[in-house]
Design a protein that fits this description.
The protein is mostly helical and about 140 residues long. About 80% of the residues lie in helices and about 0% in strands.
Length: about 140
């Protein structure tokens, strides 16, 4: 009979990294299922002070909310992720958030906000490179 001390217990960091990896896969394959994993990762990231993981989890959760049709929630989550990515000086993260926020504004029928937000994203010099890596975006281009 094994006891709890005999069973390997992953650290918060290991759990967080695995949750994020699983959430990214879900976001690319089944975006509606990514939100549950992203919420759990967000909690762990915030608790552990891991800002990069926090931004990623907020982003995944926000894109999943957008895919689900909850644009208001998506804008809130993605705006929080954008603030963290700006703090981290992560241009690809900022670009991704701005693109997703623009899509959310568009789905709400606010063409002015959508265009302004797209323009902010398009101002990044490496935006073509970022777009080629944004596999999450295909759900919105295809649908």
């Amino acid at each position: 009979m094994s006891t709890l001390t005999d069973v390997y217990q992953p650290t918060v960091r290991e759990n967080l990294q695995q949750l994020l990896a699983d959430a990214w896969v879900k976001l690319e394959q089944q975006p509606l299922e990514a939100a549950v994993l992203a919420r759990r990762a967000e909690h762990l990231a915030r608790r552990s002070g891991n800002n990069r993981a926090w931004a990623q989890s907020l982003f995944i959760w926000g894109v999943s909310s957008l895919y689900e049709g909850d644009s208001h929630a998506a804008i809130g989550l993605l705006s929080r992720a954008l603030a963290v990515y700006r703090f981290l000086d992560d241009e690809q993260g900022q670009w991704s958030c701005l693109k997703a926020i623009a899509l959310a504004w568009g789905s709400l029928g606010d063409a002015v906000q959508a265009l302004e937000t797209h323009s902010q994203a398009n101002a990044f010099k490496r935006q073509t490179e970022f777009a080629s890596k944004a596999r999450w975006l295909r759900w919105f281009v295809a649908n």
